[in-house]
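Take a protein:
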Amino acid sequence: MSKYRITTKNKYALPKEEYLTAIHYALRYPLWLEELRSLGDTSSGIRYDKEKVQTSITGCEVEDVAIRRIEIREKIDMIDGIIQYVANDMENWLRQGVCYGLTFDQLKAKKMPCERDSYYQMRRKFYYELSRRI
């Protein structure tokens, strides 16, 4: 039996492939946060204490790091924005569930103030919105 149940009975139903893509995209959130923290600070990439500034045709390492930081930040902000749009006052709980893989029972054990049906409806809406934006 599959770990993920696919249903077409609700208004946030997705095809199996889109649903699984949204799940795995959201689970990359902690990896992106870690990568963002590990990338070096690019603000000190240009030195003005030398006579000439050396550039290359293909770009430099500082530019590549800056571009990667922007890409990661956009992905993190998109997920945070969807969580805020969907969850309102339950943002932290939904983030733990969809981005860190915690189950409803694990969240409930941590005193989540939400019942099963409303949590799963909120989670389905998150995956629906995420699949529309990626």
The chain has a mean pLDDT of 83. The helical segments are 16-26, 29-38, 61-87, 91-99, 104-109, 116-133. Residues 16-133 form one domain.
